[in-house]
Design brief:
This protein is α/β, with parallel strands linked by helices. The protein is built from 16 helices and twelve strands. The protein is about 45% helix and about 15% strand. The strands form three sheets. The chain has a six-stranded parallel β-sheet with strand order 9-8-7-10-11-12, sandwiched between helices.
Length: about 400
């Protein structure tokens, strides 16, 4: 289960595919609320053999459910804010934490199951309550540190609410998985639970490598917006003294895109910004081919962001692409493992970043060495079929069901 779109939660996609291939009968429950992702959902589902239930609350296709769920969510948030996250009844906290808690719960209960496994913030409480009502074990996937995830004016309240839900659901889980070792350690330290890291790795799909002489940089994510460190990349590219390209694949926030283009024109006139079209998650590794390097320039705005290892990192590696990494704690630790396949810079250090980029931009041999190192790292450890990712996931799930039986 995921409270997001099927196509925007690759962790649940990979779990469903792995369990289906291992002989399980799998039903995936996901949400649907944005037209741009709904089409990708259908494309992803078309190539799978497992069952799928979509909880639709899009304005265009489910206006009634959107109105009802929105009103319930706002009322619950208001009441929890007044009472305080730690004092509000847990039933109210669940509905303040997830807009479609009731609808996800109903989808779980629609059919019997031997196990319920889910991730994303809005799904955690529904997974736990649904499994309890079915009388079966449940597992939770903690891709992010949810109680340290939100930034901004309302962050204290939202993070406190997430912490309330975590305290309610984590102890009863038969197993817990996390997107990085540092997130697993943070949950273990805070809640005294055992968490198995399952990284956001993907199946390898290498290509011969990019051609041409210019530096071609690639960044991908779900949304092109602020807080992604792209301003550092643009400013650093302006100091290279040579032409370069920055290819961006994400859903665009127009206001931010305009600001980024303004910055490019002012500080990096030799840099070409190229917007790539959205595509299916099944195509992301292949679509990373043809570039010189991938960018994972995360800004350490939240505790969760400091500890996470994103999908984009392992997508690049699965394509044999070296990476520029901002020095968050988790990414700095990974960089040490990747060796020549990674370049590490401090967020905001434009001069240092420019020096890194200059080494690759002016030296095709260095780019080839880095690409070879990226492929070696993917072959050695950072691919989905590795026993510590795909294998560990099946191991903890099998153990959970065996104990329940």
């Amino acid at each position: 289960m995921t409270a997001g779109h099927l196509s925007t939660c690759p962790r649940m996609l990979k779990a469903a595919d792995a369990l289906h291939a291992a002989g399980w009968r799998v039903r995936v429950v996901s949400a649907s609320h944005s037209g741009w992702a709904a089409a990708a959902d259908v494309s992803v589902r078309r190539t799978r053999g497992w069952e799928w239930t979509a909880v639709d609350y899009a304005r265009e296709t489910a206006p009634g459910r959107r109105i009802v769920s929105g009103a319930r969510f706002r009322a619950a948030r208001s009441l929890v804010s007044a009472a305080g996250a730690s004092r509000a009844p847990i039933a109210l906290a669940r509905r303040a934490f997830s807009r479609i808690h009731d609808e996800l719960l109903a989808a779980i209960l629609a059919e019997p199951a031997d196990l319920v496994y889910g991730g994303t913030t809005g799904a955690l409480a529904a997974v736990a309550e649904g499994a309890h009502r079915l009388g079966v074990p449940y597992g939770l996937d903690l891709e992010d540190l949810h109680s340290g995830e939100t930034v901004g004016a309302d962050s204290a309240h939202v993070n406190a609410l997430a912490g309330r839900i975590e305290r309610d659901v984590l102890p009863g889980a038969s197993f817990l998985t996390a997107g990085s070792a540092m997130i697993a350690d943070a949950y273990a330290a805070t809640f005294g639970v055992r968490v198995q890291p399952i990284h956001n790795t993907f199946s390898r799909e290498f290509d011969p490598g990019p051609g041409g002489r210019g530096l071609r940089m690639y960044w991908m994510s779900q949304t092109l917006g602020p807080g992604r460190g792209l301003e550092d990349i643009v400013r650093a590219a302006g100091r290279l003294g040579r032409p370069a390209q920055l290819h961006l694949r994400a859903r665009v926030m127009p206001m931010y895109a305009n600001e980024l283009h303004q910055l490019q024109r002012a500080s990096a006139p030799d840099l070409e910004l190229v917007h790539e079209p959205l595509a299916s998650p099944d195509e992301m590794v292949r679509l990373s081919h043809g570039y010189d390097l991938g960018l994972a320039c995360e800004a350490p705005e939240s505790l969760s962001r400091k500890l996470c290892l994103s999908n984009k990192i392992f997508t690049y590696l699965a394509a044999g692409l070296p990476i520029v990494l901002s020095a968050t704690p988790a990414q700095a630790c990974l960089s040490a493992d990747l060796g020549p396949a990674a370049m590490l810079y401090e967020p905001g250090d434009v001069d240092g970043l420019a020096e890194h980029l200059r080494r690759w931009a002016g030296n095709p041999a260095a780019r080839r060495t880095a690409r070879d190192a990226a492929r070696d790292a993917a072959d050695r450890r950072w691919h989905w079929e590795h026993p510590d990712d795909h294998g560990k996931l099946l191991e903890v799930i099998d153990a959970s069901v065996a104990v329940a039986s």
